[in-house]
Automatic annotation (TrEMBL):
It comes from Curtobacterium luteum. This is CHAD domain-containing protein. Pfam families: CYTH. InterPro entries: CYTH-like_dom_sf, CYTH_domain. Residues 5-207 form the CYTH domain. The lineage of its organism: Bacteria, Bacillati, Actinomycetota, Actinomycetes, Micrococcales.
Length: 513
């Protein structure tokens, strides 16, 4: 069992032997209560690559003080952190499974090892208002940090720092106003906000940490620069979205269409711009993982769409013909489909291909090594991408709208038509996203617009085909149970109309791509 809270604090560097400032009268502080000093002993853990530090996450086992235990801190900024506490275990040499599970993505599935031991002599002063209620806590720390890697210096690194943490529940804006007021008092005694606010970061100074060694961004005006920028944005979105999906408390409200868009965006960069990256097996596997992730999240996005739209007809008149029982049956089945789809997505998030994809994104964003192909202007790169994507999209759209083989059974024909339409749909969406990376300044505007139109038409067609499939299943179950199927027929007729309309539009689109 763990508990999580928001920590808002500011760290100040204070000279050795220096006096603390007088804080009475600042930000409502009218009293103080100085406590007796006590000792803290913490061992911090990370991967061999220092993945946690790179993700601005720390995990430690700490003894001493009122909150002994295992702690995970995720930094939102230099002053705001989300802190998760786990019970202290007797075994100091291994990380509890619950802690490892909570860090699965940040550690990229890798094992953790001790990287630094930090001992602290802490003196706490409670900062109180006129009624004796606590506003904040000041911790005056004398710190000793000993790295645990093979190249660590023999002498521990020592320093003094002061942390001021607001009480729980205080609004961030109010907390920062308090810190701003305190800055002047600390400056008067020769102190100031710490250049490095994390004890771990100071303690690891000089450590051989691969994830902390970054490369320069590609030159401005190159396609490589735009690709790196887009991947950085997509990686940030992906990490936030996967965290929401992993957490049972937030998975039900997660926006699956946003996740699908992120996944397809990554697949577009790694696929359509494959020559921009080194010709390695690692990149090939990452591109394949991105494609697979795009497929599983697209299914989830379709399931979410069906939950929202399938129980309702497109017009009020038709909607009035659908009885409440039919609507409830459809809603229950589509919700179950969404839950199954979310489980499939979460299963992929725990897979080795997903971790390899994250590693590739880390390297592409933090240590870009663009090829000569990518270091050209966006227009030149766009010409090469267009030469590949345009005929590929045209061929797949042609397959999706091809005449059906009358000699093939109806069920097989429908399955083949759906599969071909999904391939064309994914290809057009990916092509449009690939074009968006460099923009319509690089790609011909007419092509950019036509590919976008094709994506919209095929999106509607895929949704309609999946809706019809779901309605047939539900109607069959209702019929076998002796229930009426009129409502299903109304909704199916609505979807048949939309499917036929989108088919005609797809044929028209083919002639323009």
């Amino acid at each position: 069992m763990s508990d999580t809270h928001l920590e808002i604090e500011r760290t100040y560097d204070l000279p050795e032997g220096g006096d603390l400032p007088d804080l009475i009268g600042v930000g409502g502080i009218l009293q103080s209560d100085r406590q007796e000093p006590f000792e803290l002993d913490a061992t911090y853990w990370d991967t061999d690559r220092y993945d946690l530090v790179a993700a601005r996450v720390t995990v430690r086992r700490r003894t001493g003080g009122p909150d002994a235990g295992w702690h995970i801190k995720r930094a939102a900024s230099d002053t705001v952190r989300h802190e998760q506490h786990f019970p202290l275990t007797d075994d100091a040499d291994s990380v509890p499974d619950e802690v490892l599970a909570a860090l699965f993505t940040e550690r990229r599935g890798r094992r953790l090892r001790p990287v630094v031991r930090i001992t602290t002599t802490r003196t706490v002063t409670r900062l109180l208002d006129e009624d004796g209620d606590q506003i904040a806590e000041l911790a005056d720390d004398t710190v000793r940090a000993q790295r645990l890697d093979d190249d660590a210096p023999e002498t521990p690194r020592t320093w003094r720092e002061v942390e001021v943490e607001t009480v729980g529940g205080v609004d961030e804006q109010i907390a920062h106003e308090l810190f701003a007021a305190l800055d002047g008092r600390f400056a008067a005694v020769g102190a100031g906000p710490a250049a490095v606010s994390s004890k771990l970061a100071r303690g690891l100074a000089g450590a051989p940490a691969p994830r902390l060694h970054t490369a320069e961004k590609p030159d401005k005006g190159t396609a490589a620069r735009a690709l790196t920028k887009r991947l950085r944005k997509l990686r940030t979105a992906l990490l936030d979205q996967q965290a929401a999906l992993r957490d049972p408390a937030t998975a039900a409200a997660a926006d699956l269409r946003e996740t699908a868009s992120t996944a397809l965006g990554i697949a577009a960069v790694l696929g359509s711009y494959r020559p921009a990256f080194a010709p390695t097996d690692e990149i090939d596997r990452a591109a394949a993982a991105a494609d697979a992730f795009a497929v599983v999240t697209a299914r989830a996005a379709l399931a979410e769409y069906l939950v929202e739209r399938l129980p309702r007809a497109s017009t009020p008149a038709q909607d009035a013909l659908v009885d409440a029982m039919t609507r409830e049956r459809i809603l229950a089945s589509t919700r179950e489909r969404r839950a199954d789809a979310v489980r499939d997505v979460v299963a992929f998030l725990h897979s080795e291909p997903f971790l390899e994809l994250l590693d590739a994104l880390d390297d592409a964003v933090e240590r870009p090594q663009p090829t000569a192909w990518a270091l050209r202007s966006p227009k030149h790169v766009a010409q090469d991408v267009s030469a590949v994507e345009k005929p590929r999209v045209r061929d797949l759209v042609r397959d999706a709208v091809a005449d059906e083989d009358a000699e093939v059974a109806v069920v097989e024909r429908e399955a083949a038509a759906l599969a071909a339409t999904e391939l064309a749909w994914t290809a057009t969406l990916r092509a449009r996203m690939a074009m968006d990376v460099l923009g319509d300044d690089a790609f011909p505007h007419a092509l950019w617009k036509r590919i976008g139109n094709a994506a919209e038409v095929l999106t509607e067609r895929v949704r309609s085909l999946h809706a019809l499939e779901q309605l047939r299943v539900n109607a069959g179950i209702a019929e076998r149970g002796g229930e009426g199927t009129f409502g299903y027929g109304v909704l199916a007729g609505d979807r048949v109309r939309l499917a036929e309309q989108s088919y005609d539009e797809a044929v028209h689109t083919l002639n323009r791509v």
